[in-house]
Structures are given as structure tokens and as C-alpha cells.
Amino acid sequence: MPASVAIVTGAAGDIGRAIARRLSGSHDVVALVDIDEGALAAAAAELGGAPSFVAIACDVTDEDSVRRMAAKVGELGRATTLVNNAGAARAVSLGDTTADIWRQDSALNLEAAFLTFRALEEPLKAAQGALINIASVNGMAVFGHPAYSAAKAGLIHFTKLVAVEYGKFGIRANAVAPGTVRTQAWEARAAANPQVFEEAKRWYALRRIATAEDVANAVHFLSSDQASAITGVCLPVDCGLTAGQAELARTFSQSDNY
What we know:
It is a single chain. By secondary structure, this protein is an alpha/beta fold. 46% of the residues lie in helices and 16% in strands. The chain has ten helices and seven strands. Helix 4 packs parallel to helix 6. It is globular. 45% of the residues are buried.
């Protein structure tokens, strides 16, 4: 029987590595996909390397590059799980968002998921596999990063489109929407403002920040047989942020002005 393969884009980052590590327990091979070849090689080495982890350099915004990546995945075995994790945001206001920023954020955070899914569509049909798109709470409500947020909102809807149209082939499509996750990017902010995590925690019901492992656990569940009846959903992994802002709730509960 061909080896089962999980594909994780943006695999060189903190969340991508955590997802890859978690999926390695349920797949024979995890294909690590990223545009940064140096960081990708380091991630593969950290995770343990071949045969369990195979690095594939790819620009997920380029259709030809994605097609070549899909062909290499086919050489590894049977694609059973695709995780579209690659993404990035630019911290500018809507008024400062240029047409180039809008197009670039859309290409990476939305169009890339379409390209990778279509490139791996046939093997996923054959395997009755799982698609998990890493969205964001920014796609569910307004928290800044407008171009990124609009793309992530589109990604959530794209997930539902796949769920409805491809369910007849046995493909399940779901999204995971992280809130703040303690990654290297956030550590850089903490270097400039040591209180950044404490300041952020007050908005979260659980009074903590999600970890990359929290996101990876959600992805693992949605890819597993335990979620065999779940498709078309967006699962927030946000410590309660989208349920309601804890700080606002506390403010209003202490106020006489209702």
C-alpha cells in the first residue's frame, strides 16, 4: 500500500513545524513545503529528516511551482491530508493599503490555497482525504490587517465551497482560525514591548495566548477519523476571543450604564 502523505505549506514557520510534527504520528510521510529553502532545510533537520519528513521548496503563489510540488508529493505516496498553512500579514491600515499589498496578501493567503488544492485534487479524491485551511480570527471579525483579513475571510468561504462541492468524493474540508499565537514573530514584538503578551491576554476569555501546538492539535483532530462527520466548519483556536472580548465584558458588567 502506498505511503500516506500529509502536505503542510508554510512548514518552515513555528505553526507549520508544529503541525508537521503532530501529523507525523498519523501519516507515513509529511511533505514540508515552503519558499524559504534555508529555513525549510533547518525545519526538516529539526523534525528528524527523511524518510518521515521530506522538504519540498515551492512558491505556493506560482501555479507552475505548485504543480511541480504536487508531482513530487506523488512520488512520496498517497496524498491524504493537505494543510494550507502558508500566510503572512502586513500591519497597515486600510487607508494605507496599496493595490500591490492587496494583491500580494490575497495571492498568499487565499489564492495559494486554491492552487494547492486544485493541484492535489485528484489524489485527495482517491484517498477521500482531508483539507485543512489555516485561516484566522481576522477572517471572522475586524482586528486590523485589512488585506490579510479579507483574504482569510475568503479562505473560510473557500473551505465551505470545497466541503459542499467535493463532499460527494469523500473529501472533508475544514478551517482552523487561530487567534494570537506565540511565535517568533510575536517574540520580536515582545522584544520591543515586554508587556505585549500580558496586554493581549486580557482580551482572551482563557487569559492566555494559544500555542503552535494548540493549533496543531486542532489540525490533527480535523484530519482524523474522529472528525469523519465534520466538514465545512471553521474552528477558532483563539482562547475564547471570538466568543466575546473578556475585557469589554468585564467593563460592562461593572458599569451601571446598560
